[in-house]
Amino acid sequence: MSVTTQPYRDFSAEWHERMVRQRVAADATIEVTRRCPQHCVHCYNNLPAGDAEAARGELTREEHCRILDEMAEAGCLWLLYTGGEPLLRPDFLDIYTYAKKKGFLITLFTNGTLITPEIADHLAQWRPFSIEITIYGRTRETYERVTGVPGSYERFMRGVQLLVDRRLPLKLKTVVFSVNRHELADMQQFAKDLGAGFRFDAMLNPRVDCSRGPLAVRLQPREIVQLDLNDGARVSEWKRFATRFCGLPVTPEAGAQIYSCGGGVTGFAIDPEGKMSVCVISRFATYDLRRGSFQQGWDHLTREVRGTKITRVTKCTTCGIKSLCGMCPANAELESGDPEAPVDFLCRVAHLRARAMGIPVRAHGDCEYCGEVEAHGQQAVGF
Amino acid sequence: MDSKPLDSESTKRPYVKPEFTQVALRPEEAVLGGCKSTTSSGPAGKTCSTTSCSTTSVS
């Protein structure tokens, strides 16, 4: 018997290519709860840890296991558990372990503050593919200014150390906004010192209930692009990405559909109450898994939701720099309630990013930012 | 006792040595991902780019 070893990168790419062709529900994101012990100012979906009504509405362990059985049957392999804070649920490790035994490749998003030696031991025994912890600041002051919870920094640091001690596959990440941006480099260095991967994102959006609270701390477009420019590797990656995806002709068929992302192609999300959607921020046309099977839900997403047509042409329809932009129907719904309305903030960031990195932007309708960038050049946008 | 062999020479398939491929699970090689799981467009996460877009979990 011969055994060959395939790099994960190749395996993932090969299987995703196959699953995209066959429309297999391969990539799951499950929010096990929206409750969280922290009260982060920028968060898009957290509810108080003691929200009894939210807890009552959450899928039970048995419902989770039934859905996992059906997901496995449908061919799902990649599973992301997120929240809220997943570890807030006392039965989370039972659900997690059931999923492990089913063979899912699991990524766990957590803030790390609830990790105990016992939980860390369990994760070491039932090893996830990856664990990602969000770091909100490198100092106690900043971290707790974000979370609003005294003592949370200590608990975060302890959680990280427990995972590091057990050599679990840890990555750190942060969301950058006005409260913590001055500590970005220190957070990056902390991850490096731990031997953990690191990534950041500065694109805040309104909360899933459409309240605009997080936008109060969102960075300005030029500040966001400046963060990209400060990081040589990030610039290279953006350029590589743009070379691959920007300027691709938009086919009439693709241009006629509201969704042009991977949601409902191989990806889907399930919220704490069992509502299935194309992604975690989309509350558009969900399917209730308490009333039907996973397969019925997937059929609903692939046929009904993905098949939704645009009702009008906007400047986004033929935009060649969509790949540089976070614009999508879900984001637009959160910003304005209209899934087709261009999001001014995202449009401005994408154009600034393209200009700053020398990525050509072809005309795409009545776009004020194309004109602004061309007329005023780099100086006007601060580069 | 009258018995026939299960496989005649003409229908027998050649033996093929079994091959196994194992995948080295290295999360640092994960490049695909869903909107709020990677939280942004472009290099941050690219599952969606499989169909031309941008935003996007981490697989």
Compact overview of the structure:
Chain A is of the alpha/beta class and 383 residues long. Chain A is built from 15 helices and twelve strands.
Describe the model:
The complex is a heterodimer of chains A (383) and B (59). Chain A has 383 residues and is an alpha/beta fold. Chain A has two domains: 12-219 and 259-305, Aldolase class I (TIM Barrel); 322-381, no CATH class. Helices cover 42% and strands 13% of the residues of chain A. A nine-stranded mixed beta sheet of chain A has the order 9-8-7-6-5-2-10-11-12, covered by helices on one side. A two-stranded parallel sheet of chain A has the order 3-4. Chain A is globular and about 60 Å long. The model of chain A is unreliable at 375-383 (pLDDT under 50). Chain B is built from one helix and one strand; from the N terminus they run βα. The model of chain B is unreliable at 37-58 (pLDDT under 50). Classes of the chains: A alpha/beta (383), B little secondary structure (59). At the A-B interface, β1, α1, β2, β5 and β6 of A face β1 and α1 of B. β1 (2-7) of chain A pairs parallel with β1 (19-24) of chain B.
Which key terms come to mind for this protein?
heterodimer; A: 383 residues; alpha/beta; nine-stranded mixed β-sheet; 15 helices; 12 strands; B: 59 residues; little secondary structure; rod-shaped
